[in-house]
Predict the structure.
Amino acid sequence: MATRNDLSVDDKPPDGDAITAYDRDHLALYIRLLDAEQAGAPLEEISPILLGIDAKIEPDRARHVHRRHLNRARWMVQHGYRDLLKTGFPEDAVPT
C-alpha cells in the first residue's frame, strides 16, 4: 500500500458493481488519473505524485496499480456515477 497526501492507495482498488467507501475516498484520485490519461502524462511522472510509487524503482507495481485504478475510474464514469447521483457527492472528496 502506498501513501500520498494522507491518502492510502491500495495496490488493488475495489472491483465490484457498487461504489465503496474506498471509491468515495478516492474520487479525486480517479479524476486526476483520467485527466493525466487525457493529457498523455507518462507513468513515471504521475505514479509518484498520484499513487506514491516510484515507477523507476517499482515499474511493474506502478503499472499494475495505475492500470487497476484507471480502470476503476473509467467504471466510475460509466456506471458508478449513478450511485453518486442517488446518494450525493461527498463534500470532502471534491478535488482541489
Summary: The CA atoms of residues 19 and 81 lie 9 Å apart. The longest helix spans residues 59-87. The chain has four helices and two strands.
